[in-house]
Amino acid sequence: MFFYNFFKKHLTFSKRPHNQRGYSFSFAILGGVFLLPSNRSHAAYCEFVTSQIRLHYVGGILTLIPADWILLEKLWITDLSGTADFLKDQYGRRGPKPTDPDCLLRSYLLMILTKQPSITRWVDDLRRTPLFAIMSGFEPGKTPGIGTFYDFFPRLWNAHAKNSKPHEKRRKQKPKKGTKKGEKAPTTSPGKVARLVARLLGGDHTKRSSQPFDRLFDFFQSNFLSVSADLGLLGSLDSLAIAGDGTPVVTSSLLRSKSICNCRAQGLENCRHKRFFSQPDCDSGWDSSRERFFNGYHLYMFTASDSPHDLPVYPRLQPASRHDSLSLIVSSIEFSQRFSLGTVYRVILDAAHDAMGIYQLLTHHHVEPIIDLNSHTAKNVPLAGDFTMTPDGVPVCSANVKMKSNGFDRQKNCHKWRCGLSSGTVNTCSAPCSTAKYGRTFLTYLGDNPRLITKTKRGTKEWTLIYNRRTAAERSNKREKVDYKLESARHRSTMMWYMRTFAIMMCQHIDAWRIYRKDSLALKSIIFG
After folding, report:
1. Residue 450 · residue 458 · CB < 8 Å
2. Pick from 318, 319, 288, 328: nearest CA to 473
3. What is the mean pLDDT of the chain?
4. Which of 345, 303, 350, 304 is nearest to 325 (CA)?
5. Which of 365, 285, 289, 299 is CA-nearest to residue 328?
6. Which residues contact 140 (CB under 8 A, 6 or more apart)?
7. 275 beta partners
8. Eight-class DSSP state of 400
């Protein structure tokens, strides 16, 4: 009774000044012991898993199947011990001791690895399956509840609001769909890319602009990208090649919204007032692969194209109605402000990005664009004099003869060409346009037309080999949407969709680590001796 009255007294007068010795001492007791989550080392986690498995799975009725050992190996090599230090500023100085954030994150990754889309059901799985609790870092019977997980996620989110846009907004019309089978939706404004690039090139965009997912990406870069980079799984960091591609993410069958005015009660149809949207960052877009409209996000993903495992590097959830070209511009600027592990040398994109503004933006940042030409705009371009240029960047003389490549001048940064009908000192042209014994020569500078005059010439074997690596982005998106069932969740906030997207990316890197270390990892002998 004495201790009860003592704590009750000091908790009742908790707002009084701290210059009173008794009260400050009480806060030292209540706040000093229960301060921050514990920072358990990865070695301590491995010892915990070993002891718990020996306790519950040796000599009893419980057993482990091969699929369980695969999950154990993936989490065994994943060091999340720095999570508490990374999030120490996100925890208060008073109150009960919080659940270890590394265990919560590890448990969430295990949920993704087991293809469980619901956090509510995952909490039940933790209580029902002792192995899942042990692999997460919890003792069986002492697992967290649903609210503990949802209290943890905002600590990785760099904003108070869970969505970027306000809930109240006007309804938008559906975008146009592709005119042909499998064709992507056209841009709503053809000049939007040029205007956006001109504004970016005219201003200072080197300063990092704050985004709600910054804390998530910083943790992903320091704990996953850096590990893959050290293992050589991203390719050469001095000349990193990136493949970019967008993919639809369906979040609901209908746009969830309700009226906040009384126009319908007054008999007024086609009301243009604002409505309340439960998913304000989502809208409608055209899915060219499924050939139907969808509601949700347009996930634009950067993938390391030289990675043997097609590892993702940077995600960006865009509105579903946004075109790939605009998504690339926004994502590339943000990525250049955040990525600090190497230098991007080349970006590989499909024909949806074939816009002059994108070429200008990438070359301005000293990045080589490898972009397929749009068949609708592939035509000869006039050059100086009576010369023209094919879509492959080859000059054509007045006699309609393609010129021959004659090397590349690095000092002048240009391609050199010579007459297509000359062989050595013999020129077979009936009406030569030059008296030189080698025939007419011509120079095409990279800065004149970066779309057609490319550093790696189109149509060559080198170009084909490089461009074929663009499919790494498609394979990575397939793993996220099909293998890890990205769209199976039922979240209603952008924060949770980013959490799920980054967790899936982390699992992709973990899968690559396991393949890399599979020959040297003998987990059964380590645990059972």
Report:
1. no
2. 328
3. 85
4. 350
5. 299
6. 52, 56, 130, 133, 134
7. 169, 259
8. S
Strand order across the 388-389 sheet: 381-382, 388-389, 395-396
Residue 81 tokens read as: 């011990």
Residue of 497, 432, 514 lying closest to 157 (CA atoms) = 497
What residue type is assigned to position 88 of the chain?
K
Amino acid, single-letter form, for residue 197: V
The runs of H, that is alpha helices, within 432-522 are: 461-467, 471-478, 494-517
What span, in angstroms and rounded, lies between the C-alpha atoms of 362 and 357?
Answer: 9
More confident residue, 190 or 147: 147
C-alpha span between 264 and 266 (Å, rounded): 5
End-to-end CA distance of the chain: 51
3 state DSSP class of 265: coil
CB-CB neighbours of 336 under 10 Å: 15
Of 310 and 21, more confident = 310
Report the predicted TM-score, pTM, of the whole model to 2 decimal places. Answer: 0.86
Cβ-proximal residues to 49 (8 Å cutoff; 6+ apart), any chain = 72, 76, 134, 135, 137, 527
Cβ neighbours for 10, distance < 8 A, ≥ 6 positions apart: 22, 23, 26, 27, 30
E strands within 350-465?
Answer: 368-371, 381-382, 388-389, 395-396, 404-409, 414-418, 422-423, 426-427, 441-445
Separation of alpha carbons 45 and 103, rounded Å: 9
How far, in Å, CA of 386 to CA of 388, rounded? 7
Tokens representing 82 are 């720095």
